[in-house]
Amino acid sequence: MKPSLSVTLDYELFLGVKSGTPENCLNTPTIHLLNLFRDYGVRATVFFDILYYWRVLNGVSSNPALRADLDIIKTNVASFLKNGHELELHLHPHWLDATYAEGEWTFPHYKRFRLHSLKTDNNPSDINTICGCITMGKRLLEDLCSETTPHYKVNAFRAGGWSLEPMKQLAPYLKENGLTIDSSVAPGLVVQNAIHDVNFESCPDKDGWRFEDDARVPTENGSFKEIPISTFKNDLITKCRSFWEKYTVEPNVKKIYGDGTAIPFPRSRFFQKMAPSVKILTFENLTFFEMMRGFDSLVSRGHRRLVMAGHPKYVSPFAISETERFFSVLRSRGVRFTPLTETASTL
Ligand SMILES: [Zn+2]
């Protein structure tokens, strides 16, 4: 089987002190990405932060300034769909606690960062429950997409901040809603701090598997399919070369389009320095050389279903041009650029 690449993007604002503007975090980078995808025949998968949209939609009547934000989101969604891309579910429950004033969103705390922190009642119409958040989120995304593509169906899920485990708490509701394809797992990645509790160290080095109630453990005939985010380890030569290449790029070329700030990671920086350096195959901040080394190392390990992950908000002109070189080589090698749900159908 020839390798395929699923390009996935988490469509969201920043989650830190400054959420950033939809114009700079979403619209501008989306236009650049759409042009790039069109030029290389890439059909991407957009993991859409539905609770942000839910807050904007419900906030418009009391904050007319949100009308422009809503228009940007709807225009981007229509453009994605009209260009053959798919939209799937992404949930960041701390949006439920966000406040909006004078054109800015503020997150007073991250007590509900993980889906698991929501109430456990089996109430599909209460967004403050795990059941309601998944059920209402999926319906809302389908309604939004159906404005462009009638009867649109959402089938895949990516947990916000990779916070999928313990999957046992989410599995019944994901299954009930037909969300049986997951792409939250990044093998080898460990992020543990006051907000995250992510540990994918024990995942198999495979490009897809079925599972039942723990996405890290393959189960024959499991109800769910995991198509993991592709990860790899950089060797020293690649690290040095990429560091130098990035260092020599003009600051305005490597400046990201997004204008917000990342979520604070208390206590994580030290840990991440100590943890094995696992890289995600991304279009955000890798050099062409890193992308190629990552791709080739994954293929040499037997992977045929590769998944690239990134966020429009972190895209820069440098990221776009490096990714363009990467896509160009992949196209010349006959790699297929398939949306995630199509990739999952080969499992
Ligand atoms: Zn996210």
- By secondary-structure content and strand pairing, the structural class works out as alpha/beta
Which sheet architecture does the biggest sheet show? 9 strands, mixed
Shape: globular
| Regions with little confidence, pLDDT below 50 for 5+ residues | none
CATH-derived topology = TIM Barrel
CATH architecture: Alpha-Beta Barrel
Calculate Rg over CA atoms: 19 Å
N-end to C-end Cα span: 12 Å
Strand content is 15-25%
Structure description:
The strands form four sheets. Strands 1, 2, 3, 6, 7, 10, 11, 14 and 15 form a nine-stranded mixed sheet that branches. Strands 4-5 form a two-stranded antiparallel sheet. It is 36% helix and 16% strand. It has a single domain (4-344), classed as Glycoside hydrolase/deacetylase (TIM Barrel), CATH 3.20.20.370. With 347 residues, it is an alpha/beta fold. It has helices at 22-40, 50-59, 66-82, 130-146, 171-176, 236-247, 251-254, 268-274, 288-300, 317-332, 340-344, and strands at residues 4-11, 45-49, 86-91, 99-101, 104-106, 156-159, 181-182, 190-192, 197-199, 209-211, 224-226, 231-233, 278-280, 305-310, 336-337. It is built from eleven helices and 15 strands. Zinc ion binds at residues 10, 12, 90, 92, 160.
